[in-house]
Amino acid sequence: MAREKSVLLEIKDLRIEGYSDEEWIEIVHGIDLTLHRGEVMGLIGESGAGKSTIGLAAMGFTRDGCRISDGSVNFDGIELTNASRSERRALRGSRIAYVAQSAAASFNPAHRLFDQHTESARIHKTENWREGKEDAIELYRKLRLPNPDEIGFRYPHQVSGGQLQRAMTAMAMSCRPDLIIFDEPTTALDVTTQIEVLAAIRDIVEEFNTAALYITHDLAVVAQMADRIKVLLKGDEIEEAETRKMLSDPQEEYTKSLWAVRSFTRPEKPRPPEGTTPLVSVKGVSASYGPVKVLDDVSFDIHRGRTVAVVGESGSGKSTAARVITGLLPPTDGHVEFDGEPLPRSYTDRTKDQLRQAQMIYQMADTALNPKKSIGEIIGRPAQFYSGLKGTALKKRVDELLDEIELEPSLYYHRLPSELSGGQKQRIGIARALAAEPSFIICDEVTSALDQLVAEGILRLLDKLQKELGLAYMFITHDLATVKSIADEVVVMKEGKVVEAGGKTEMFTPPHHEYTDLLLSSVPEMDPDWLDDLLKERGLENVGEAASKQI
Amino acid sequence: MATFSIIYFVLLIAGTATAAYLKNTAALLLLFTLLMVSFLAALLGGTNVLVGFTIAAGLLAAAAAVSYSFREALIVILPPNGAKLMRTAPLTASFGLLVVLIYIIAAIFAPVIAPFGESEVVAGAFALPDDQLLLGGDQLGRDLFSRLIYGARNTVGVAIVTTSLAFLLGTVAGLVAATMGGWVDQLLGRVVDVLLAIPQLIFALLLLTIFGAGIIELTVVIAVLYSPLVFRLTRAVAGNIVVMDYIEAARLRGESTWYLVSREVLPNITAPLSAEFGLRFCFVFLAISALSFLGLGIQPPTADWGSMVRETASLISFGLVTPLIPAGAIALLTVAVNFVVDWMLQLSSGLKE
């Protein structure tokens, strides 16, 4: 790597405080960081580690309710902590750019991509609209967006998530900044799309010799992108090293635990004998949202005490299948059987007992728990509603459930959801499902919004509950590592159809269906050469969305 | 009077210079603007204008000082939760709370506070203020001050009952529309459209002429006319809540519509609703005053601020401020309630500044 090695960004003893409960609490405790020109540094850690806060501080910015209390942020000779508002503003967009996690939420839906792309160049008076547009087309081409001449005329909702993320990277590049801060740019994307974005980002950063801070909680991703990795925990630095050294020889216990996080696996359970009535049986179901057909003749069985993982990219119909089973979306064709009995098509026609048997755990624990109700009420309601428990009996049942999900009842009974961490909220979601005493639970991407360590805890809990209570799970996910650890059977879906189905061991040993193969090979691995090897092997045109379309 | 002008300008210039020296931009701008305006005013209007300025500034300072003391007192008195809330409250909010509190006290203890009865004739028509009649008499010789106190009870009381009724109607309908959706939503929405299509004051006048102008009729008519606005708001904010996963979970549990509405949705929209209650209260209050002014609201001899303005309106041409006093009472309450509402909106939305 023949890169210029002068220091671009130097952060020294950075301390950041956040305001809560009428006092300032230090959330970043003295971080040092040195970034050279053209270097990519990965910042990794769990949520709450202060990764994003440090990333923003590198632009001299703090979120509302935060302040830089001590230390210095020196960007190419300019001290950002005491620079004036206008000085910092002059840097942002032109010399330092930011790429946010959710491009869909960061683009203004009311303007075309070109207009948003050229905005910062126009503000900084480096280009006019026409020049900006030509530059955008050039960058779109470099980032391998389809139809680069035309795509800029679209509105954000007219392009896919992965394309939008690349358009945002292009936008960050529009002034050819010296430093780009990537804040979890691929976390919200499917594995297949992620590869394209990763490859595109890496190429363009290399081409323009841009330095970057790459913030993520996914180690395998950072291994592909970064030259150096810094591990953070609760606002403290744990360690920093070259990527290869960090991966092969981590020094600290915490880093090792991060590296070992995907250790939870479970062998496939023996198949039930032929002719057993499955607990839930989806038979030839088709469904549509208005005129759009989203499920096409889908059939699969779920047996008592077993876990069926339904995998596929977003838009493949996984969640719709769950909505049909719960009765939220009546199917246009086919039906769902529960224990051999056909279920009414809509949930409004089902009996209380039928509703009780099938429960659901949601992806976003934040929207799945009523923020105005205490934990005791949230968990207690199904028990009260189905079993008619009252007073002390109800309280006892809630305590039991809280014990079950490994939360101390006396501490959590009166709390509100906002007073819990992400993992704890997800546990409450599980307890609410258990409170109904179901025999079948649908888990809709329950771990995808969580950190890896926390997610593993949830998976272990679900596995424990399955052993104790003999529950059947339908596990909707796009994360194949999760499938590997918890599933007994796998159903692969694509565009509303079941592509392949079978036992876990069978599915993870070749030969696969083409699509399964694409999904499997797209999961990033801890090896820093993985992306290079994959691109070499498959070719640039044969990864991600493009490859998915060919099948 | 010349001395006054000299002292006035010396103090103002000294203040401006201090602000400039301390680099306090906001204070400097304010004082400098005041200085320029004062120069102009003194040239055009003479010393009297400067006295007016001083009194206005003094009143403002007094109001700020009282609000500050009130806030600090509340922090000491209230339980920890309330104290925490008050500590972050702006001075305007504490001023608003104080004014509302004074109005409530006046309304509840009206017979104790008021020196004379509501419709007691105690002096000649349009008697001038003295030790007995603090604000003078009205056109029939009744004590204006006593009537002002009783007016708090009647006007504010009717406004509160009316607003509550409007909210009861609007919120329930709005929640049902948002939660059930489908044809219920369509039906309620179209009914509301019809109500909204007719100008409110004209419609109120029409209905009151048909049903007669009693207190109950007034309350019901205004409540019905104002409920569509509440319906709209409730339906909109509840619409954001009913798409949440926890509502879906409750639906899948088989909960009834009433449970969904009252236990799951309502607690999540109380903040915008209570802010709207404050705002809507002011409008209802003004509507009642307007109707009373037109002779269709609260009927004599009941004291009511709107009709008090009308009855004494002619005095304004003699240079007396009498009709402005009840009008001022209306304005002050409106401002105070809006201060509190602003604060609540800020609390509920997490907006800064």
What does this structure look like?
The complex is a heterodimer of chains A (551) and B (353). Chain A contains 24 helices and 20 strands. With 551 residues, chain A is an alpha/beta fold. In chain A, strands 6-7-8-3-9-10 form a 6-stranded mixed sheet, sandwiched between helices. In chain A, strands 16-17-18-13-19-20 form a 6-stranded mixed sheet, with helices on both faces. Chain A has a 4-stranded antiparallel sheet with strand order 2-1-4-5, covered by helices on one side. In chain A, helix 4 runs parallel beside helix 7 (161-173), helix 15 runs parallel beside helix 18 (422-435) and helix 16 crosses helix 18. Chain B has 353 residues and is mostly helical. Chain B has 2 domains: 2-87, no CATH class; 147-349, MetI-like fold, CATH 1.10.3720. Chain B contains 14 helices and no strands. The longest helix of chain B has 37 residues, at 144-180. Chain B is globular and about 80 Å long. The chains are: A alpha/beta (551), B mainly alpha (353). At the A-B interface, helix 15 of A face helix 11 and helix 12 of B.
Q: Oligomerization state of this entry? A: heterodimer
Stretches of chain A where pLDDT falls below 50 for ≥5 residues? none
Greatest contact between two chains? A-B, 26 and 17 residues
Distance between the termini of chain A: 37 Å
Shape by Cα distribution of chain B: globular
Structural class of chain A: alpha/beta
- CATH class wording of the largest domain in chain B: Mainly Alpha
Stretches with pLDDT under 50, minimum 5 residues of chain B: none
Mean pLDDT of chain B: 85
- The structural class of chain B is mainly alpha
